[in-house]
Batch of 2 targets.
Target 1
Amino acid sequence: MPQQEIIYLDNNATTRVDERVVNAMLPYFTDLYANSTGTHLAGLTVKEAVENAAWQVADLIHADADEIVFTSGATEAINLAIKGLADQNRKHIVTVQTEHKAVLETCRFMESIGFEVTYLPTGSDGLLNLQLLEEIITDKTLVFIGMISNNETGVIQNSSAISKILKAKNVLFMCDATQAVGKIPIDIRNLGIDLLTLSAHKFYGPKGVGALYISAKAKIKLSPQILGGGQQRKLRSGTLNVPGIIGLGKACEVAVNELEKDQNRVSLLRDRLEKGLLQFEDSFVNGNTQNRIYNTSNICFPGVNSEQLILGLGNISVSNGASCSAVTSEPSHVLKAMGLSDEEALSSIRFSLGRFTTSEEIDTAVERVLELAGKLRG
């Protein structure tokens, strides 16, 4: 099926690379191909471009360039942040049951090497109980790990309130901001975040590149997980993915300039989609609808098997699980943690819109989903 026929509503999984990002990257595959560590003119030219990209990333989240470490994506950044926290006096980690599997699996690894991990539940709306968080922290708690915006429901946690609790108890705050960076304003200073992870391909950059923000406080405790030539201030060795880093930087620059425009346009399209789809009898939105990122709608269609619906939609791309698996026969751990039954979770679909989504695509998707869901229920 030709690419132009696809109606892509799975932007939380990955996004189309913006043409401006592609154009910024191209010279670093051909003319400017030297390593950024070279001491000759070609190498120094590339090094300057990489340093500029670090400033572009930092500018988007209100950090400093020397607080940014480039990685292969958010998963590597998450592993560096969690595994790198080697404080042997504080061996208690707190996270949330609705986190991405990259966080949950890394936390399970930490348990295997002697750390205690508490997995907090959320309410049925996907929001964390702040009183419960405060009660669970002890003098052995090293870090709290929590998303800004959930990848499946779009629910946005109250990071400012969380940060106040953590600061009062001298606990590090790590945010998986993969679904938030480039979509909503993020100021790591105001939010009191110590570690923040992101991936370029979630906001119109290339796959295979991401970054970890590390505060001065967290850097003292952080140990590198990839050893070698000592690149990136010895925190992450290895030859840098220069074209990818340039692409990430450009994606951040575009986001700084167009974030509000994207939000205004896409939020209207999401509301239009949701209004149409909720015509389906007994359907409902999963998660808090007031504290939610503007591009995401997770809807349960009771009595409809989501896997059959996804496959039947053909050229309309949606998902029923996390970003790493578009179609799964297992109920979403996020929706289960929010109290949905297996049947409800397996009847839920995530629609995630993006910069290139059109109103015509929304109208077509609503019509097709309603028609097919009706047939499947019947």
Target 2
Amino acid sequence: MRQFVSAALPNSKGLLEIAGKDFHYLRNVLRLQVGDMAPVSVPGGRLLQTTVCRVDDAAKKITLQVCAAREQDDSQESSAAAVASGPRTFMTLLQFIPKPQKMELIVRQATECGIANIVPVIGEYTQAGSEKALQKSDRFERIIREARQQSGSQVETKIFEPQKLERALELIEGGDFGQEQNSLQGQEAAAATFSSAPAAKIVLYERGEKTMPLSAALGLSADCGNKEKPGACVFAIGSEGGISPAEFELLLERGFKAVHFNTNILRCETAALYAAAAIQSALDN
């Protein structure tokens, strides 16, 4: 389901005025007219049902009105439905930085999959200068917003500043992304944390040694003895050149479980999407 992602909340009268490029999206892409319903995702992850109450093509403005009765009466039910229809596992992607175009694709796909946090990692095999493209925060903001609007994701995906692996691991182990103010969007990060639920840590590795099946890495196999599924998962994906042996050993030392998928050779952008889908399928079903 397509949605409109708003950076602002409705005013005290329950009205939301849309202009500029967002007017073009609502009017020419969604083709909204007066009386049409329009789902709107607002800061905080809530999905509001709104009605188009006014269209001013000359001024290029659309006014949306929150369906107050439904929002007031059915807010809990709507929230539960939104959670049930989306990923239930809080997920973070540690992505060793590939070429800029591939990183853009990875960010778009991760957003559509409902990944909460994307932490770009400057690895030994990261090509010189690739991390500089991530400094164009406005471009990645647009990519994330467009992906959320297209996919209907209620997860407010955040992308962080590029980090060396050691610093990225410190960020993860701190357990509270809300304390970090270096996300590219400059917004508060998602409230869910790794400290609030059992967390799985996985590194996708292109070689077979020191690896295990995904179910075992997630603690889901019968011999693991876990009574509770992980409520969060962080998974690391290499760049075009993969992950160096030293980086791989560091991840293992910090509690990551290595997984090797018995598939064809995957490109880094394919591996990120493949891993996200496999992990969500295992944990959310």
